[in-house]
Amino acid sequence: MMTRLQTSVHDQALACLLCNDVDQKIVCVRALQQAWHAGALSKQAAEPIREIVVPGRPSRPELVAPAQLARRGLGTEQGRAAFIHAIAHIEFNAINLALDAVYRFRDLPDTFYTDWLKVAEEEAQHFSLLRQRLREMNQEYGDFSAHNGLWEMTVKTAHDPLVRMALVPRVLEARGLDVTPGMIERLQSAGDTRTVEILDIILRDEIGHVSIGSHWYHYFCDQRGLDRDGTFKKLVMQYMNQPLRGPFHTAARLQAGFTMRELEQLTGVDKYE
Asked: Which site in 157, 227, 244, 259 is 20 to 30 Å from 31, CA atoms measured?
């Protein structure tokens, strides 16, 4: 949590980003967004940009390789709790991701910071909803192990906002647009209506978040005179080493700023679900 008055949106974003306490981080994010909207913050940072390999996070959950995560079905309460925990961890990482974008990328239009502070605040809302759902199931955030893939890509893309916008919101976060509807159906079949309600909120908001990523990706491409679709495909192959895997939730991706040409290029096929 912020311990002193900051004057820069970048400095305050860093203070929130490095906060290890979950509850204080959520309070910090909301205060930062309110201060920015009130016009109380400048864009003159007090210190140079620095690399942040490890963002502020609690000591738990234990971070492991994705292959080491236990696979549990949604037919049992323990399996659903593990699933909810995995989504909560993604949302917590997404708070740090949005804060890092505000902290790291300088001299951009005010709307860039407005957009990513909005994302940070909504990700904090999502995390809070999921953590409360875990508590209703007698679990807590940190009770299951988790992986760190989202933040690792954040570090890899720290050198360039165009690369960040292409690969984090439009690849990693956009994957949620594809898989969430299927998860909702499975949870409905299991009778877990409360978690379904939460995922409906998250899916709605995440379309907006990916759309923000698309908007700023297009902004940086246009600024540099780059072909949007071709550059995206090139970056995916450079950093992911393979085309994106379908099936895609086409309607959601189109709503979030993708084009049919992009999806065709990325999959190498003309039709997809």
From this structure: 157
Taken in order 52, 151, 170, 240, is the CA torsion positive or negative?
positive
pLDDT at 52 over 90: yes
What is the DSSP secondary structure assignment for residue 158, as one 8-state letter? T
Torsional sign, CA 117, 119, 120, 125: positive
The pLDDT of residue 3: 39
Say which residue, 268 or 93, is predicted with more confidence.
93
The C-alpha angle with vertex 258 and arms to 217 and 100, in degrees rounded to 5, equals 35
Total structural domains within the chain:
1
Q: Does residue 16 fall inside a structural domain? A: no
Cis peptide before 161 (omega within 30 of 0): no
Q: How far is CA 33 from CA 13, 208, 255, in A?
A: 10, 17, 26
Q: For residue 240, what pLDDT is reported?
A: 87
Give me the CATH number covering residue 99.
1.20.1260
Write down the pTM of the prediction: 0.92
Cα 95 from Cα 179, distance rounded (Å): 20
Q: How far apart are the first and last CA of the chain?
A: 44
Residue 64 belongs to some domain of the structure: no
